[in-house]
Amino acid sequence: MRIVVVGATGNVGTALLRRLHAAPEVDSIVGVARHWPERGGEPYDGVEWHRADVSAPGDRPKLVQAMLGADAVVHLAWIIRPNRDEAMLRAVNVEGSRRVFEASAAAGVPHLVHASSIGAYGRPDGRSPGRAPVDESFPRHGAPASHYGRQKSEVERILDEHERAHLEQVVARLRPGLIFQAEAGPEIRDYFLGALALRPALRALRPLRLPALPWPAGIVAQAVHADDVADAYWRVVRERAAGAFNVAAPPVVGPHQIGRLVGARLWVPVPVPVVRALVAASYRLRLQPTDPGWVDMARVTPVMATDRIRALGWSPRRSSTEAIAEMASRLGERGGLGNAEHRSRSPLE
């Protein structure tokens, strides 16, 4: 099999390269990225690299060329910074995704697999989804105040249109929860904590046991290790599966799970409006780079059932809390995934 991975140097892309290298059915891996890896070695060696910018209309022929002869294209390219430049985010995430979809059809690729997200989910009225697990038919309206949720939802609609227009192509989409691995720790720190996350302070926090953990009241999350997500992508590709697949590892993460990770015996519920106001104020003052839309998205996303992906034989090897702990162990470190472009140039970007 010849597999093309668009966005092959990111958090999920690096994990998927590792998984594809381990699959005897795969004899050719093509990596497509704006910037090639800045180091060699695992998992980058043995990959046929093509440089293309999905946001550039003039690079569409490069995308088509890279996809010729492929059995499947896995589209992972997505950016979440610069957080304050939504025009750039849209150019890469929305128009770039459209360009990848069109190029895959032009190249005659029989299977298109797109990286959506739990962030695409949300009821049209913005009501809280509750705690009962939902399947892939849950509404996909995202959180209107979140550029991430809004764009993930919009790209899903574009993919719906693409699927209807190209019945000859099998189309799948994966909707994972929060994705973590150790190597992504420095990038995640820069993306979401910025100047609030000094490396020496984070290293010093490792042995600390908090007496109490503040937590947004009613908010829970789902997480999964990058290697387990990569295995889900591979199973979808191998089976040439169609449709949507929720991907998350147990348990659902709330204050009790995080409290155990940091040694807190008590947790203090903080009203979500208070959390949002604090995030908004610190964002406006450029103390940290996370806008309040991320809080809004956390409030409207549901708990996902994962029956469909498990029917393909998928089962996570790490729990959600193990994935979080592994990532947190590297928050105070240098380094990362092997591509400097995945690091914030400014902690407040």
Report on this model:
By secondary structure, the protein is of the alpha/beta class. It has helices at residues 11-21, 60-67, 86-106, 147-165, 185-192, 199-205, 226-238, 255-262, 272-284, 293-300, 307-310, 320-328; strands at residues 2-6, 28-33, 48-51, 72-75, 111-115, 170-176, 178-180, 212-216, 221-225, 243-247, 249-253, 266-270. Strands 3-2-1-4-5-6-10 form a seven-stranded parallel β-sheet, sandwiched between helices. Strands 7-9-11 form a three-stranded mixed β-sheet. The protein has a two-stranded parallel sheet with strand order 8-12. Helix 2 crosses helix 3 (86-106) and helix 3 runs parallel beside helix 4. The chain is globular and about 55 Å long. The termini are far apart.
Radius of gyration: 19 Å
N-C termini distance: 40 Å
Task: Give the strand order, joined by hyphens, for the main sheet.
Answer: 3-2-1-4-5-6-10
Q: Helical content, roughly?
A: 25-40%
Q: What oligomeric state is this?
A: single chain
Instruction: Count up the helices.
Output: 12
Structural class, judged by helices and strands? alpha/beta
Element-by-element helix/strand order = EHEEHEHEHEEHHEEHEEHEHHHH
Count of distinct strands: 12
* Proportion of strand residues: 15-25%
Report the mean per-residue pLDDT as an integer. 90
The major sheet is characterized as: 7 strands, parallel
- Identify low-pLDDT runs: 343-349
